[in-house]
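User
Take a look at the entry that follows and flag anything odd:
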Amino acid sequence: MFTALTRRTLTAALLAVTLPAAAAQGGEVFRVGYSASGDRLAPLTVTLRATTPAGHRVQWTFGDGQNATGEQISHTYYRPGTYQIEVSLIDPQGRVISRADIPLQVLGSGGERADLTVLHAADGTVRLSGLGSVVYRPGPVRVLLNGREINGPQRLGTGTNTAAAVAITSAGQNVQRQLTLTHAPMTVSAAFDSEVLRLTNQARAQGWNCDTKRPGGPGLPPLKGHLTLDVAAEAQSAGMALYGYFDHTSTLDGSSPMRRVQAAGMTPTSVAENIAAGQQTPKEVVDAWLRSPGHCRNIMGDFTLIGLSYVQRPGTKFKNYWTQVFARL
């Protein structure tokens, strides 16, 4: 069995702003833009970027009473609403020489709640994140394992393990979500992961045609393995092996491929995921993906990075579980 899914964030509001002649020497341009989750749901973290002439600086006014300075800034809008982002270009003498406005609509995510994203690893460790929580106020979402607040990977104990996310709403109420985690022996294979990467990049170099299912099209640059994406890929393979599902949405915590990548520590502009179960060798699984239109489009897609995970858990329905996670920053 195998299936493919793509999740993307929206990049929008790319503007080229006219500069005074004195600031535009050498063809330099003042460009501004932002990227944010395509669903635009609060709390919404927006990454704002500007390209400026040498010696100039940028000031952002976010429209919610806060501001910052810098060519790349991340800002979180906790409440739904329509905001006007103002960006000012300031010359070396401290004068504002150009301005641009970016309208931003932030949508409501429903009632405030705590949520939990669980990243299992085959070695019995786990990472917990409060991603998926909806809280319309600043403040951390606390994550706990067996009643103890944690930060970073933790080893699961034998028997039952309880994970929880705890948050305080804008009204000052405590909300939480609790999950019971499973631990079981699993194995991985670095050699299998390396071979999947080699075969994937071989198909890209050969210009694999997803329609004719043979090489011969324009070649693509190789994908580069990334440890953060490996964490997200292993969480998916291990999750399927532990909880008996075969889907891009985890039946344990409801996480999507994008959410798992973000919980692992990356905020890309696009993400895609290929999964498979039951195939016994890297060649078998990559051949199956290349002959499936959705998987093939991911392999031949406009991505630059990849995470890989093969996990084996004997005694389960499929025994072998495979995941590819593609991303572009």
User: Anything to note?
Assistant: The CA atoms of residues 113 and 174 lie 9 Å apart. The chain has five helices and 21 strands.
